[in-house]
Amino acid sequence: METLLAISLGIGLSAACGFRVFVPLLVMSVASLSGHLTLAPGFQWIGTYPALITFSVATVAEIGGYYIPWVDHLLDTMATPAAIVAGTVITAAMVSNTSPMLKWTLAAIAGGGAAGLVQGTTVLARGVSTATTGGLGNPFFATIELGGALFTSILALLLPLLAVGLIAVFLFVIGRKAVQKARKVQPTPVQPGIS
């Protein structure tokens, strides 16, 4: 059960990277320094004061950048691969007592995958916001993403299984809407001889 909770915690924090890359790392650092989170061997550096300072500065810069027009688009292009890497590292930092092969495979697929899926969803939603509001709605959207990162990170620490369940529901609903929208957009094929 302890391994399942650790994996769920890692996936929950990794998914939060899809909203904001550095918020979950900052939350992990604070939780580790306060004794509320035990990191896997080799990842204790996340719970050090230099890491806390680095994650704090990076978080403030990332949050601020998303409120500046056009900078938010530049950040989105860099955030997608960064979120996948951060999600992989976060899940690996939570999983211990397993072989390195299993740990890194799980971290890449579950952690990196969760971060990438959430990040992809936010990139698409930001694109819709830009197209429909001319970019004026993007600061509001940035606030929602920040709230999502904070909520998901804290929920993952407190109730990891619930966090993973909510992430799965979120991705299912968004994916279902995307498929429905894609079906509506597809042109109907023209039958020969029918006008």
Key attributes of the depicted protein:
195 residues; 7 helices; single chain
What features would you describe in this structure?
- With 195 residues, the chain is mainly alpha-helical.
- It has one domain (2-185).
- The protein has helices at 2-17, 22-33, 49-65, 71-94, 100-133, 138-158, 160-185.
- The longest helix is centred in the middle third of the chain and has 34 residues, at 100-133.
- It is globular, with a radius of gyration of 19 Å.
- It starts with a helix and ends in a 10-residue tail after the last helix.
- The mean pLDDT is 87.
Structural class: mainly alpha
- Binned strand content: under 5%
Number of strands: 0
Our measurement of the CA-to-CA distance between the termini, rounded to an integer number of angstroms, reads 63 Å
Number of helices: 7
Q: Tell me the helix content.
A: over 70%
Number of domains: 1
What is the molecular shape?
Answer: globular
Give the helices and strands as they follow along the chain. Answer: HHHHHHH
Largest sheet features: none
Low-confidence stretches: none
Whole-number mean pLDDT: 87
Q: From the alpha carbons, calculate the radius of gyration and give it in angstroms.
A: 19 Å
Structure summarized in a few sentences:
The protein is an all-alpha fold and 195 residues long. It is built from 7 helices and no strands. The chain has one domain.
